[in-house]
Amino acid sequence: MSRLRVDFSQGWLKSITSLATLSLSNNDGAIISRSNEAKALGIKMGEPFFRVKNFCKQHNVHVFSSNYTLYGNISSRVMCTIEASWPHLEVYSIDEAFLDLSTMPETRHESFCQELQKKILKHTGIPTSIGIGKTKTLAKVANHLGKKVFKTPVFNIMNQMDLLKNIAIGDVWGIGRQWDKKLVAQGIYTAHDLSAMNPHLLKKQFNVVLMRTAMELSGIACGGLEEDTLKQSIMSSKSFGAMQTEFSALAQAVSSHCARAVEKMRLQRLVVKSMYIFVHTNRFRQDLAQHFQSIEVRLVNPTDDLRLITKWAKRCLRQIYKSGFYYKKVGVCLQDLISKDQCQLDLFHQPCEEQLQHTEKLMGIFDKINQKYGRSTIRLAAEGYSKPWAMRSELKSPAYTSCWSEVPRVRVY
User: Distance between the two ends of the chain, CA-based, in angstroms?
Assistant: First the structure.
């Protein structure tokens, strides 16, 4: 039985209209996403925004700051719609997923994918493109052909393998610039050329990864859907919108990062055994004094208590903070994460059962309120309110799906 994957690539980071649009990186620094209309104007990926700001105004280009909360929420809705239609799902990234349809009759593959594409558009308003192939790599190729060549939302490459001759080797999933140069130098110009190569020779000349890519292009699956694995660490860090010198501002930022990290940790029912805090100045400002430092702390008992984690993070920050420096970034990394169901406490410093129950009840209330009414609806006072350190997002679109105050209002006259 063939193992078939379907690759979904949502275009929601880009414009779904006929307008030229751009998405910017943290602090509105560089261009990270462009619509086809913006590409046609010659705007380059990674270009610092300040260089093309006036150009964008002249050509009526719509520019948006990064809105990670909105992106994550929309992605979750899309993935839930997919999973409700077919359970054998691997979420590959925020805008991609694979489905294993090997248990579905092959004659139904295209009709199922067409119905699914329409369902996602109806439920979320997000246009998707679907590629069908015997392996993940072929599904990616099919997706590329459907979007770039045939302009169709669903494309099946199963009976059209000759089309691999039209795929440049550099456009194959997993082939980077260095490999592209080496393969072209050896006369391997297309995906078809790579699929015809001896896999064992490729392993010897390159590595096992390229060997698997070649085998997948020839229709031999080298791996099934990957199951979600528990995280070993969780990092939370963002650059400041404006450099900060006061300890209070850095402490608020660290507290906020602790809240984000603990939120992700609790979703997987994990607890943390150790963490490290870091600070650094702007390395591009050579006219300013530089300071880069980190510190690690191991907790007596593994915990998911936000209050305790924040307290230790602020203590660590106090040890590495130095006055007189202009700081650009602070961060928190929760390490040595283990399952909460398999947590072993310290023999000589065990908290009482009543304290553990109180902590679990309190954190459970935190989770429920923020899940129902939006992130940071309830938070520790240590996070502050004014947030002078917050990331600069002057062009951010409203958080239509996660903030009540930004939900569009409809008036009837």
Answer: 60
Name the helix (H) or strand (E) containing 265: helix 247-267
What is residue 292's three-state secondary structure?
strand
Is there a single domain that holds both residue 247 and residue 216? Answer: no
> Of 290, 277, 275, 313, nearest to 243 (Cα)?
290
What is the per-residue pLDDT across 306-332, written as a single tens digit (0 to 9) for each? 999 999 999 999 999 999 999 999 999
**280: containing domain:** 234-383
Q: Tell me the chain's radius of gyration from C-alpha atoms.
A: 25
CB 397 within 8 A of CB 66: no
Buried b or exposed e, range 185-204, using 16+ CB within 10 angstroms: eeebbbbbbbbebebeebee
Q: Please give the distance of CA 358 from its chain centroid, rounded to a whole number.
A: 34
Please report, as a single letter, which amino acid is at residue 127.
P
Summarize the confidence of residues 21-45 as an average pLDDT: 89
Question: Phi, psi at residue 280, to the nearest 5°?
Answer: -160, 155
User: Do 185 and 98 sit in the same domain of this protein?
Assistant: no
Distance CA 94, CA 83 (A): 14
Which of residues 228, 250, 284 is at a domain's end? 228
Which amino acid is residue 53, in one-letter code?
K
**Adjacent-strand bridge partners of 91:** 97
Residues in Cβ contact with 274 at an 8 Å cutoff, skipping those fewer than 6 apart: 296, 297, 298, 299, 335, 336
Q: What is the mean pLDDT of the segment spanning 345-367?
A: 85
Residue among 242, 223, 237, 238 nearest 326 (CA): 242
> Which residues does residue 140 pair with via DSSP β-bridges, in sequence order?
none
The answer to the question of residue 411 being in a domain is: no
- Give me the number of domains the chain comprises: 3
Distance in angstroms (rounded) separating the CA atoms of residues 44 and 93: 24
Same structural domain, 217 and 242:
no
Q: Are 23 and 66 in contact (CB under 8 A)?
A: yes
The three-state secondary structure class of 217 is helix
Kindly provide the b/e burial profile for residues 342-366, where b requires at least 16 CB atoms within 10 angstroms of the residue's own CB.
eeeeeeeeebeeeeeeebeeebeeb
Residue keyed to tokens 């600069």? 392
